[in-house]
Structure prediction request, 600 residues.
Amino acid sequence: MKTLVLLVSVIAFASSLQAQQSGPITNTDGRKTTSLNGDWQVIVDPYESGYYNYRYQPSDNGYFKNAKPKTKSDLIEYDFDNSTTLKVPGDWNTQSDQLFFYEGTVWYKKSFDYQRKPERRVFAYFGAANYLADVYLNGEKIGQHEGGFTPFSFEITKLLRDSGNFLIVKVDNKRRRDAVPTLMTDWWNYGGLTRDVKLIETPLTFVQDYMVQLQRGSRNVESGWVRLEGARRNQKVTVRIPEAQITKSFTTDANGLAKFDFKADLKLWSPESPKLYDVTIEAETDQVSEQIGFRSIETKGTDILLNGRPIFLRGVCIHEEAPIRGGRANSREEAQMLLGWAKELGANFVRLAHYPHNEHMIREADRLGIMVWSEVPVYWTIQWENPDTIDNARNQLSEMITRDKNRAAVIIWSVANETPLSDARLAFLKNLVSRAREIDGTRLLTAAMERHYVDATTQMIDDPLGEYLDVLGCNEYVGWYDGLPEKADKLEWRSKYQKPVIMSEFGGDALYGHHGDDLTRWTEEYQESIYRHQIAMLKRIPFLRGTSPWILTDFRSPRRPLPKIQDYWNRKGLISSGGEKKKAFFVMQQWYRELQSQAR
Ligand code: GCB
Prediction:
């Protein structure tokens, strides 16, 4: 059980559509919220002595009690109020030199007052905490959450006081073999309360969640559901889209659920015209509104169809790292900068690697008209046979889809990246695929897969997982890990499946400003040469329907120590860590401009 709600017993809903592991609040839009961002007092606790006693048993008097000496003789070996602070949201690694490589536990504490009105409920909401979070209010445990990139919330109505509340979170980012991701990745393990923390107030019975999207395969039937949480489950709910004069009412059942379909001719969302409508969900006891776009996404043979028309996904991969300042990104401005560069490259699509990014990215993509591939950190060598690992991956996948299911920008969910073939892995990933289809039947499913040579010049895509996916992602590093750049010239690509392929990674490292001839590793010229040969090869692949080179910007990785070149950065960015464009950026940009003009 990844999320343990001790205070309120969240009703165990029957249908999978209703399964809710991330806590009662999934959407914070249009709600009364109180930000708890800012400075939090922290205690770095590498031995977890704030949690375990000296016999390594969980202690009743851990740091979560926020104890103070009552007499001058009292022995208490910690004191939040005289401890250092860290900014939330933010990773700890880039806020303190001492914590740069730190992997372990940090305790966070925030004090606040809150005058709750009698007919209201209050929830503590966390945009994300990497990786394992134990949450306490006023000395009592309110829940635990596992997974570093998705939101969770716990109800605190009954524990809340008018003044002097203290919220304490133990955040542990130790890597574990059985976790998702597992021990080995190629990105920085930024720890901490990396996204917004807030209190959310709702009525006693509130609109807990809803989905309003075009029905799969349709361009004029809206389909979805609304779910209420609280004592008054049975209510009239109305979905309104005022700009389109739509008002449709339904009644929720004994579980608080209403499913609906209705016809509506809306202006469809697309990269050229990212139309969003104000949508209001109105129940008798609550009302929420947000902006939602409507578009259809399907495949037909090897084509991807957006609103019924074939498209080519001109993409780029992005890690959730803040440009220039470094560290985990978590602001609208950082999302605008990253997506702005993607647009400048000529992209209409981004692959948000390798975990769900913060909500600013998705909402900006919605506004800017950039299609999104969003994925879970099922990466490389997960423990395929461990039932806890699969539960964890399913939960992270569910939380990702739950958060972003109403975002038109998201067209593809990805269940895995470069996972080695085995029966256990196939069973694990099939499980994720069916989970994703269960909660969201409207989007395409993919995974970034590997491929293999059938002879010296033929690459084959035939991963058995391909049978269960809509779109085949394929990572290849011809010219970098696989031969020299010109190797691409003679390559032929074959696929076992009549399905669209996205070349979801290719590229190579270059240190910005490092020059030489095009066979000298780490130079901008070598990287540029990879892109030239790659593009010529990609143009010859008949079933190719998208590309997302690796990667938009350089990003930190502990696997990359080469002094003076890498210095713990993966240098495959088309843009440097300082925001400077490398030569390869312009090669890719030129191709995307050509593709864009052909598409018109
Ligand atoms: C890959 C991985 C990506 C790495 C990249 C690299 O195949 O999917 O996470 O960062 O290669 O740079 O080696």
Observations:
- The helical segments are 332-345, 359-368, 387-404, 423-439, 524-538, 583-599.
